[in-house]
Structures are given as structure tokens and as C-alpha cells.
Amino acid sequence: MKLEAMKTELDMLKIEIENQETDLLSLQNDSDQQVTDDELYTLYKTNIDTYNQKVNEANDLAKEIGSTWILVPIPGKK
């Protein structure tokens, strides 16, 4: 009987370990999807740079056609 109880306990421990592995994999996937502050800033800065490039192109075109409207670029400092 003692052997059966130990086998049952071992089976329960295996299940707990499998559940823990699943939880750890889930947490790993979540952490892999999160970006660091530097990565987020780099993405933000890249988007600002792209926006400002489009603004400059639009302003150059506006000057060529004689428009009095201009767009103001967004400053992008850390």
C-alpha cells in the first residue's frame, strides 16, 4: 500500500510540474512580447522621424504652390 501511495504522490507531482511548466511558458511568451523602454522609445522616435519627414515634404510642397499653411514638426528628444 505504501508503494501505491508513493506512486500516486509521484503522479500528482508530475501533474503539478507539468502545470508549472505550462505557467512558465506562458509567462515567457508574455515577457517576449513586451518591449523595453529603450525599444519603445526607439519605435516612438522612428515614428516621429517619419512623421517629421512627411511634414517637411508637405511644407516644401506648400512653399512651391504658394500656400500660407505649414505643418509644425514634432520635437523628438529623449
Give the rounded overall mean pLDDT: 82
Structural domains: how many: 2
Write down the secondary-structure element order.
HH
Largest sheet: none
What does this structure look like?
The protein has 78 residues and is mostly helical. The protein folds into 2 domains: 34 residues; 43 residues. It is 78% helix and 0% strand. Keywords: Coiled coil.
Outline the secondary-structure elements.
Layout: H1 2-33, H2 37-65
Offer a quick outline of the entry:
The protein is mainly alpha-helical and 78 residues long. The protein has helices spanning 2-33, 37-65.
Features of the shown structure:
2 domains; 2 helices; 78 residues; coiled coil; mainly alpha; single chain; rod-shaped; 78% helix
